[in-house]
Design goal:
The complex is a heterodimer of chains A (about 60) and B (about 450).
Chain A (H helix, E strand, L loop, with lengths): L1 H21 L4 H23 L10
Helix pairs in contact in A: 1-2
Chain B lengths: L8 H28 L5 H27 L6 E6 L2 E7 L14 H23 L6 H24 L7 H4 L12 H19 L20 H27 L6 H27 L4 H18 L5 H24 L9 H19 L1 E4 L2 E4 L4 H32 L6 H6 L1 H6 L20
Antiparallel strand pairs in B: 1-2, 3-4
Helix pairs in contact in B: 1-2, 1-3, 1-7, 2-3, 2-4, 3-4, 3-6, 3-7, 4-6, 4-12, 6-11, 6-12, 7-8, 7-9, 8-9, 8-10, 9-10, 9-11, 10-11, 11-12
Classes of the chains: A mainly alpha (about 60), B mainly alpha (about 450).
């Protein structure tokens, strides 16, 4: 799950970068920017959930 | 790409003096990290701070500045949609061909040597009590040698984020006067990576997954560190604003006022929130709020009026207070000094604040951002780059480092304390320990 989360982070940034570089000003570009943010957010959640907790001893 | 105008003698002198104050910010962060850690790791933390600053300075001298560069310097470009995108500088290593005479390039190099060390100190707070000295130095080498210069080039060296105004039509391009993103967020994201890779300290979480309080050992060090950090940050913000944002040297007064007001409102906001929630003001969270206010002030310090700086700081203080708890309770991230929140989260807010409040001035032309969604979008593109590119990059390099050189100290070493385990002597040899915490027990 962790590699997939990081892949989504990079993919989201790729969408944002592509929107900045390839799309002209306007609503479509903003939609792509928001989509990129959304993909990054999903990736961030996956990465955060994939890290185990070092728990203490059981009573 | 155009070169920045040469500084006047007064401007060069102001920048030099301001930059020479930056090590005080490093001293402040070191004291805060040490005070919020355990007493049995205090000496290790201070030595680690010195070694991290040293590693960062050396590697930045060797290759860091050549990759960061400065506007108008040599750089590599790639072409997309018929436009050139400047992605990394290509100057010679070892600061060759830079006249160390007070020119903007030489001052940028001097500022970079200190600020790379400052960025390197941020993860140390998250790795407190369990991050090996050698691993901290190696990680800092990667940070100061590649991650920091790469992003700093994009923002301060004439890179593609700074070019967003011309290549993408976004406001004045991504704007960060003095390092909310380049220093604070890059350091904060590295701190997050280190906290994830190292895992929490033994005893931090119970079997049920609930966090236990491990209070810092010296709140006086923490408070003194906050005061030192204010002096250092004033220098950092003043120098950064003049060097990288082209504001007049006289604006340093406004920058200093905004910096102090932002930190003050953040600290008071954090104290008030903890007073309301817990019945008494919390010293460590108030200190974190203070640092959060400083971190948030850096981006917009030259472009806002004092009243706006107070608002920016107040929001930063509240953000840090809730963020520390959120990371600890919800994400189970053990961040002893609150560095991820105070530097990373507050830094992100500082970047946003430029788009919300800033009157960005470049080359003497003032542009009011009220209603300028282009500037806000440019700031969000920068944030997307930090989270979507810098976080995977810094996590990846530290993960790889951890594969070849374990970054976390052994369990026995952690119980014994980093001072005794790695240095052979404690910070407070005359103190007696009346607890069983050094006794190994089954986890």
């Amino acid at each position: 799950m962790k590699p997939f989360g990081f892949l989504l982070l990079l993919s989201g940034w790729g969408i944002v970068f592509a929107a900045v570089g390839l799309l002209a000003t306007g609503g479509v570009r903003i939609v792509f920017l928001l989509s990129g943010f959304g993909v990054e957010l999903i990736g961030l959640v996956l990465v955060a959930r994939s890290h185990p907790i070092l728990r203490g001893p059981k009573d | 790409m155009t070169s920045p105008p040469a500084l006047s003698d007064i401007g060069a002198l102001l920048c030099t003096v301001s930059i020479l104050l930056i090590p005080l910010a490093g001293a402040g962060i070191s004291l805060i990290n040490t005070g919020l850690g355990r007493s049995r790791s205090a000496s290790h933390l201070m030595l680690s701070s010195i070694c991290i600053i040293s590693s960062a300075a050396l590697v930045y001298f060797v290759c860091g500045f050549s990759w960061q560069g400065y506007p108008g310097g040599p750089a590599y470009q790639f072409f997309l949609a018929g436009r050139g995108w400047n992605w990394i500088a290509s100057g010679p290593f070892f600061l060759r061909r830079i006249d160390l005479d007070g020119s903007p390039a030489s001052l940028a190099a001097l500022l970079g040597i200190f600020s790379a060390g400052l960025a390197g100190l941020i993860p140390l707070g998250s790795g407190t009590d369990r991050w090996r000295l050698g691993a901290a130095c190696a990680s800092t080498t990667l940070l100061a040698g590649f991650t920091y210069p790469l992003f700093a080039h994009w923002v301060w060296g004439g890179g593609w984020l700074a070019q967003l105004s011309t290549v993408g039509g976004f406001g004045r391009g991504f704007v960060d006067a003095a390092g909310s993103s380049t220093i604070q967020v890059v350091g904060g994201l590295t701190a997050l990576s280190i906290a994830w890779i190292l895992g929490p300290r033994h005893g931090k979480y119970t079997a049920a997954g609930m966090p236990s309080a491990i209070p810092g050992h010296n709140s006086v060090l923490v408070s003194f560190g906050c005061l030192l950090a204010l002096i250092g940050w004033t220098g950092l913000n003043s120098a950064g604003a003049v060097l990288f944002s082209g504001v007049e040297p006289g604006s340093a007064v406004r920058v200093a006022i905004n910096t102090a007001l932002s930190a003050s409102s953040a600290a008071l906001m954090a104290a008030a929130i903890t007073r309301v929630r817990f019945g008494k003001p919390d010293a460590s969270l108030t200190a974190n709020g203070w640092i959060g206010g400083l971190a948030a002030s850096s981006a917009a310090c030259a472009f806002v009026v004092p009243a706006e700086a107070i608002v920016i700081g107040g929001i930063a203080g509240a953000l840090v207070t809730f963020s520390v708890e959120w990371f600890e309770l919800r994400l189970s991230i053990d961040d002893p000094s609150g560095a991820i929140s105070a530097h990373g989260m507050a830094g992100l807010w500082g970047v946003v604040s430029v788009g919300l409040f800033g009157n960005v001035t470049q080359s003497g032309v003032s542009v009011t951002n009220a209603g300028n969604s282009g500037q806000l979008l440019a700031q969000f593109v920068g944030i997307a780059t930090l989270i979507g590119f810098v976080l995977p990059l810094t996590y990846g390099v530290n993960w790889f480092l951890n594969r070849i050189y374990s970054q976390r100290v052994s369990s026995d070493g952690e119980r014994q304390g980093m001072d005794l385990h790695e240095l052979g002597a404690g910070a407070y040899p005359d103190f007696m320990t009346h607890s069983e915490e050094f006794t190994p027990h089954k986890l």
